[in-house]
Write a sequence for this structure.
């Protein structure tokens, strides 16, 4: 199983691309290449402590409020009561106009982040390109992950150090996770280490079309294994 290091293009979320119609591509991208390991479908019971801390570090690196992580965790958690001081549940959302309920389940689409308490447009536009919704057990490919995602893995990783790490990343990619950790000079606990990998099975294919002033887009999530590749999900968008 060889490292996938040839698909390092930026994996845009389809809603973000609609807001930025000048962003166009028709190339398959590693669906985790720019997405954080805190995938919002990773646990039916919500984010565990390690995922919560990683998400908080990512938010801090993006110059966003780390407390947003607690609101996100509460959105996923099936419990109807807030679990965190800065969390939010139905009682916070039903007083809004229009009112709605907390998800209380894993995110189906990253666009749901817009509904989370405290998530304004600026925060969404910064965070959405770095997170994704994929099945439990999907590892973050360290051969395609960008600096912000890697820096969020540990308190011992500074952005400047990660920049050097990416600069020195082997042309053929890291052969295994231990090789990456040794290069990064960090130690991760066994549980977090299992969330990393050096290859990918999920890819995002994005196609944009423009006719006059109109703009349409098609995004497809592709799964690849030993049996071949197949499309798991398609979404369409348009902007006039």
């Amino acid at each position: 199983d060889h490292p996938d290091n040839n698909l390092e293009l930026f994996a845009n979320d389809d809603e973000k691309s609609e807001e930025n119609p000048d962003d166009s591509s028709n190339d398959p991208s590693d669906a985790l290449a720019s997405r954080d390991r805190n995938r919002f479908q990773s646990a039916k019971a919500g984010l565990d402590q390690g995922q919560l801390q990683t998400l908080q570090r990512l938010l801090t690196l993006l110059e966003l409020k780390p407390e947003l992580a607690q609101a996100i965790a509460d959105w996923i958690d099936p419990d109807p009561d807030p679990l965190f001081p800065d969390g939010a549940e139905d009682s916070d959302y039903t007083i809004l106009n229009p009112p709605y309920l907390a998800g209380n389940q894993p995110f189906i689409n990253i666009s749901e982040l817009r509904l989370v308490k405290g998530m304004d447009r600026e925060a969404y536009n910064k965070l959405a390109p770095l997170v994704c919704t994929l099945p439990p057990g999907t590892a973050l490919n360290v051969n395609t992950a960008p600096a912000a995602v890697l820096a969020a893995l540990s308190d011992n990783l500074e952005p400047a150090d990660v920049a050097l790490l990416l600069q020195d990343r082997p042309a053929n990619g890291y052969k295994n996770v231990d090789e990456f950790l040794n290069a990064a000079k960090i130690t991760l606990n066994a549980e977090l280490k299992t969330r990393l990998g050096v290859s990918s099975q999920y890819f995002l294919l994005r196609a944009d079309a423009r006719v006059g002033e109109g703009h349409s887009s098609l995004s497809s999530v592709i799964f690849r294994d030993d049996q071949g590749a197949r499309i798991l999900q398609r979404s369409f968008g348009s902007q006039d």
Observations:
- The chain has one domain: 14-239.
- Residues 49-61 form the longest helix (13 residues).
- Strands lie at 28-30, 140-141, 196-197, 202-211, 214-225, 228-239.
